[in-house]
Amino acid sequence: MVTIKDVALRAGVTKQTVSNVINQRPVVKPATRERVQQAIAELGYTPNLIARGLATGQSMMIGLVVPTLANPFYTELIERLERCLEVDGYGIALCTTDGDPDRATQQLVTLKRRYIDGLILFDDGNVSRHLDLVRQLELPFVLCGSEPEIPAGTPVVTFDHARAGYLAGEHLRELGHREIAVVGEFPAHRMRLYGAERALAEGSIAIRPTRIVSTPEKSQRGGVRAATQLLADHPEVTAIIATHDLLALGVLQAAGATGRRVPDDLSVIGIDNIAAAASAEPPLTTVAFPIDQLAQESVDHLLGLLRLTRPEPAAVSLTPRLVVRESTAPPH
């Protein structure tokens, strides 16, 4: 088995220097650090995390709290967060809240008992209600992707959700649609709805309240059910905005089941740009969030708090972009 002594001999440094590199202490010169890291890679050395934790007082584990694993957006985000954390030697402890405030409380307490070093919480509207509890845990934390309003001074890396909705509404407005409906998760996605309404209002278009359908199911099936009822009640609708792609995929399915061709009879646009959007039939027009940047910014922010290199919490808002595919077209 490769030991720290073997790494030191290969790199031509002391065991203490190798330890300093492994534990990311800033006392090592960049050239020496690079030499040690190369030796670690060449020898396939794996640090003993238990021993490392005893020596540093850190578990090298970060807690991740997400609403669900059923939505591919969250699984894609988790993969990216995990890769970003691995670069700095951290593992993850994953918990889901299932949109349940009581479960969110239980999961936060459970994570604290696991001796994690910090928390990244993806807010679905429930975690933000537990900020007092999060602060009582006395752990560095970052809210990730939050949509609800967050108190000043809270560390948060999020998307401009209103801008995402605006881009969706603007796209349909510029195509010439006026009979527009929305399928979404409310109140969780209220800022996306607000943005869409604002874009449409610039063209003197209002979304009738009866055409705004909230679904309790955060799934493709939820999109199918909501859109099927919506299209039955409002056959005049020529375009639907779904507040996330999984619902939009359900809208596409409902359109086909009710005899509507997309985009000839009905335009559909989502938000998130999950991997399945590009392979949908037809490929889904959507609004893409910079998920890689979200993951990296969240990790950088949290590690800055952990290492005391970031003196004050900050709020970072990332800008989305429109991705036009084949599910939207001018109305006939």
UniProtKB/TrEMBL annotation:
InterPro entries: HTH_LacI, LacI/GalR-like_sensor, Lambda_DNA-bd_dom_sf, Peripla_BP_I. Transmembrane segments: none annotated. It comes from the Bacteria. Coiled coil: none annotated. Residues 2-56 form the HTH lacI-type domain. The keyword Transcription applies. PROSITE patterns: HTH_LACI_1 (PS00356), HTH_LACI_2 (PS50932). Keywords: DNA-binding, Transcription, Transcription regulation. One of its GO terms (molecular function) is transcription cis-regulatory region binding. The keyword DNA-binding applies. This is LacI family transcriptional regulator.
